[in-house]
Amino acid sequence: MHRRNTMSKSPQIAAKELDKILVEARTLLNTAGDDAADQASAVTARLKNALHQAQDRLNAFGTDVSDRARKTAKVTDEYVHANPWQAIGVGAAVGIVIGALAARR
Prior knowledge:
mainly alpha, 95% helix, 0% strand
């Protein structure tokens, strides 16, 4: 149960962290216009670092999502092989519900 809560919160946490990095990047860009030429390279380095961190976090988030999708597919495949008739029943029920909803429109 705790694992599900952590998984559902991870996109929100990643989004908040990414938002913080992007806010810092925007601030740095605004500062870059006001800084003297000798400070421009330091601001540029900080900006590159912030953007690199954002890219790393997005890549890690994408990897996490891919891993969870693979695990879910594996568990589903194992369940269908272990319980084929139940899987057929669930598929038929879902098809009926989708058909009924589509017929209403």
